[in-house]
Design a protein that fits this description.
The two termini are about 25 Å apart. The chain contains 6 helices and no strands. The chain has one domain. Helices cover about 50% and strands about 0% of the residues. It has about 130 residues and is mostly helical.
Length: about 130
């Protein structure tokens, strides 16, 4: 089981001081990543973050991934390539992230965990809660 799966946080969302997520577990034993009571809440948090990116003018998958996994901490180029291939989009294609959100989140889960252990229904439910 991956860290993201253990934490019910399939997108590996980091703790941010002062931010308490809907569905966040009362006890947080992971110092780096948020622990949720159910993966649907982890998916919801990821969808909310991606919505916020779009509201800030981020309109390509490449920009979204660079923001999500900054190059100073990650191999963002590999992350962008992987996610774009899974979503069948170009990194710099301008689009509404909402228009590909289920596929985008699924691809990000695969990149973060090496696999997707979640059903389409769980992903859809998490997005709907956002």
């Amino acid at each position: 089981m991956t860290r993201g799966e253990r934490n019910n946080n399939p997108l590996n969302i980091r703790h941010v001081p002062g931010v308490i997520w809907l569905g966040q577990a009362a006890e947080q034993t992971d110092d780096a990543f948020v622990q949720f009571t159910d993966p649907i809440y982890g998916i919801r948090a990821g969808a909310r973050i991606l919505h916020a990116y779009e509201n800030q003018g981020i309109d390509t998958v490449g920009e979204a991934i660079d923001r999500w996994a900054p190059p100073n901490e990650n191999n963002s180029a590999a992350y962008v390539t992987d996610v774009c291939q899974q979503c069948s989009v170009e990194p710099d294609a301008v689009m509404s992230l909402d228009s590909i959100l289920p596929a985008l989140i699924k691809a990000m889960i695969v990149h973060e965990n090496g696999r997707n252990s979640y059903t389409d229904l769980q992903i859809t439910q998490g997005i709907a809660l956002a």
